[in-house]
From TrEMBL:
Source organism: Labeo rohita
Cross-referenced PANTHER family: RETINOL DEHYDROGENASE 8-LIKE ISOFORM X1, RETINOL DEHYDROGENASE-RELATED
Protein name listed in UniProt: Retinol dehydrogenase 8
SUPFAM superfamilies in the cross-refs: NAD(P)-binding Rossmann-fold domains
Keyword line: Lipid metabolism, Oxidoreductase
Membrane-crossing residue ranges in chain numbering: none
Cited Pfam families: adh_short
InterPro entries registered for this protein in UniProt: 17beta_DH, NAD(P)-bd_dom_sf, Sc_DH/Rdtase_CS, SDR_fam
Annotated family: Belongs to the short-chain dehydrogenases/reductases (SDR) family.
PROSITE patterns: ADH_SHORT
Length: 311
């Protein structure tokens, strides 16, 4: 098999940047990477990380996942519009009490996280079907499997991504097009940082005092502890993401990147009534917080000893 052309979205930072660079630096030189970002003024970090691969195995192009014209222009600018692998990574986060989030802000979130994927797949899938080959790798999240307190809209956008891909995968298979959902747990990127900064500034006056207290005094400190204890680096996630991208014959449909998170997602499948994960989360957060904190400390030690949570 010759060189495969990989288009990655959201490469100005975090996971997208790490995935693009890792593929471009592949020792066997199997990939030509089209690393895209919505704002080319943010290209410096990628250029630095790409080093010698820049304009050799990695080229940078503009692509805004919320704009069909921008996607079409980018794809049309590629020789024969060829994309063998799409890594749909661009995404935004949102945390906080629902009463403090406007419907238009939630629509914006879906516009990137879900409709961005829809736009890219609509643009690329017909060509892949015609060529009877291709691979669509989608950056989902463990929150696409299991919801989480104060992540209502974000988790919903990733659930939408999961349902979309799960449905499409069967048709895609008929045309020899592979699909893979990558499901990271917490990853230490700008995503997390932006989330906390926005949370600090958030106007909580639209919600009641108790909810505001739970968000500020329980959720935010817990969330920080979780990121510190079991958070992966973007490079660790890139390593896992690139293995399905490498895997030409039989890539997995789902790929959770963090083994420390697996017991939480497994609860969902263990109890069809749905009580188990909801009650477990409730008890962990509101009743057994000391035990939860102790478990996090143990996980932090394990995480350091075993290195990474990479599955
Ligand atoms: N970090 C985590 O804990 C975590 C966990 C699970 C899943 N994920 C998922 O991983 C993906 C990457 O997130 P990250 O952690 O690497 O965060 P990040 O560092 O904030 O990167 C997000 C990337 O998406 C880009 N983006 C946002 N809106 C876009 C648009 N309309 N068009 C094109 N690009 C756009 C951003 O570009 P700008 O620089 O222009 O904003 C940035 O390059 C997301 O889909 C996220 O949901 C993250």
């Amino acid at each position: 098999m010759g060189t495969r052309k990989v288009l990655v979205t959201g490469c100005s930072s975090g996971i997208g940047l790490a995935v693009a660079v890792r593929l471009a630096k592949d020792e066997l030189r199997r990939f030509k990477v089209v690393a895209t970002m919505r704002d080319l003024d943010r290209r410096e970090a990628l250029e630095r990380a790409a080093g010698e691969t820049l304009n050799r195995s990695l080229e940078i192009r503009q692509l805004d996942a919320t704009c069909e014209d921008s996607i079409r222009e980018c794809v049309n600018s590629l020789p024969d519009r060829r994309v063998d692998v799409l890594v749909n990574n661009a995404g935004v986060g949102m945390i906080g009490p629902l009463e403090c989030q406007s419907v238009s802000a939630i629509q914006e979130l879906f516009n990137t996280n879900f409709f961005g994927l829809v736009r890219l797949v609509k643009e690329l899938l017909p060509d892949m079907k015609r060529h009877q080959s291709g691979h669509i790798v989608v950056m989902s999240s463990v929150l696409g499997i299991q919801g989480l307190l104060f992540n209502d809209a974000y988790a919903a956008s990733k659930f939408a991504v999961e349902g979309f891909c799960e449905s499409l995968a069967v048709q895609a298979m008929k045309f020899n097009v592979k699909m893979t959902l990558v499901e990271p747990g917490p990853v230490v990127t700008e995503f997390e940082q932006k989330g906390y900064e926005e949370a600090e500034k958030m106007d909580l006056s639209e919600t009641d005092e108790e909810t505001a207290r739970i968000f500020r005094q329980i959720y935010l400190p817990y969330s920080r502890k979780i990121f510190n204890s079991v958070g992966q680096t973007p490079e660790e996630v890139a390593e896992v993401t690139n293995s399905p991208a490498d895997c030409v014959q039989n890539p997995p449909f789902r790929h959770q990147t963090n083994r420390f998170y697996m017991p939480l997602t497994a609860m969902k499948h263990a109890d069809p009534t749905g009580r188990l994960p909801i009650e477990a989360f409730y008890k962990m957060i509101f009743q057994h917080d000391r035990m939860f904190n102790a478990s996090l400390s143990i996980l932090r030690i394990l995480h350091r000893r075993l290195g990474k949570g990479t599955a």
